[in-house]
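Weekly modeling sync, notes
Attendees: S.R. (lead), two postdocs, one rotation student

Agenda item 3: backlog of single-chain predictions. S.R. asked that every request posted to the team notebook include the full sequence so nobody has to chase files. The rotation student volunteered to paste the first one in as an example of the format we agreed on. Action items at the bottom.

Example entry:
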Amino acid sequence: MQFGGQTPLNLATALKQQGVNIIGTSPESIDIAEDRQLFAAILHRLNLKQPANRTAVTEEESIRFAHEVGFPVLLRPSFVLGGRGMFIVYSETELRAVIRQAFDAMPGKPVLVDKFLEDAIELDVDCLSDGETTVIGGMLEHIEYAGIHSGDAAMVLPPHTLSAAILTTVREATYALAKALNVIGLMNVQFAVKDGDLYVLEVNPRASRTVPFVAKAIGVPLAKLAAKVMTGLKLKDLGFTRELTPRHWCVKEAVFPFVRFPGATITLGPEMRSTGEVMGLDEDLGIAFAKTQATVNALPLSGNVFLSVKDADKPRAVDLGRQLEALGFTVYSTSGTARTLRENGVNVQLLAKIDEGRPTVIDLLKNGQLQMIFNTPSGMTPRKDENKIRSAAYAHGICIMTTITGAFAALNGIKALKQKRVGVRPLQKYMGNVEAAG
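Predicted structure, as returned to the notebook:
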């Protein structure tokens, strides 16, 4: 039941009722993890936090509950995979525009209304348990803030900004959850860190999409070990009893099919859009990230960049603009962001907004005069101009970042590329370059 995503979990109880022997984590434990009330009781007993939430069975109930937990909220249908029908909404108007889609994604099932933790750091943890011993395979810190589907988020192993104290808390919470849910096999936990507090977003008593990445990063066949554990073997007999942390950086980045679908909405959010992923390994985090970009649209080392961000990102955009200028890039922008940059000493070149004059960012893209774009969305649905810019960037093979955290990861990658020599080694050369927990 652990290696087929959400569908086998949904079928587990019915299969057991029909006499099928379910190995590994029991259907009863799966139900506890999937049922909002049962799982909340587990968290309460373990003294673990989760965002304020409600379970709605009607559209009007969803609206009432959204006001109770407070906007912004995350809407998500229960029992779906890939984030289908999931939305982050910031007002009742936005909620009413999408609520029908949330219910239609899983007819007859309730919709979950969660308080959305803005600017929280998200962390995916994959672990393996035999019912007695639980070992963390890997902790992957998302580069983007919480709210981006884990299949689309760039991730770093080991975590690159979280403190040792927080990571110790994460470990203890993971062990406690595995024990409380009687996990036999693999389990994935999605945490969020906000203002120093740890929140449990979701627990999946199954293999997650990050398991193959983690297995390659630490050099341990996690899926094979999980299969053996599910048949009754113990981790101590399999020789896997301690967490292994790479001494190098392992970066996972998503690959998107936008270039094959002209006109498709290009933005990252709770619904998964990627169709693949790449892995970057290096002793330097910036180089590791740069390697992941080189497989799609490589980071530039010089030239012109377009910088246009939503209001909430403008304070950080000033620092971004200053650093890009110091690296020798010429910064272009449209009126709103340009005004903020100029007021803070960044020498920015003004471009007209699309359909409001010339030249525009589209003109520069067509003429090969732009080497990179930083463009963060202004709301749940990108404005028409924003999507035109992003579509043109993909069509012309230009590197584009649509989150402010991704923009700074790219900046650090550019810095590293300009300062250090890029080395290429096969994956096998990294095997064994790990540190075992004490």
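Discussion: group reviewed the output briefly. The chain has a mean pLDDT of 91.
Action items: rotation student to repeat for the remaining queue; S.R. to check formatting next week.
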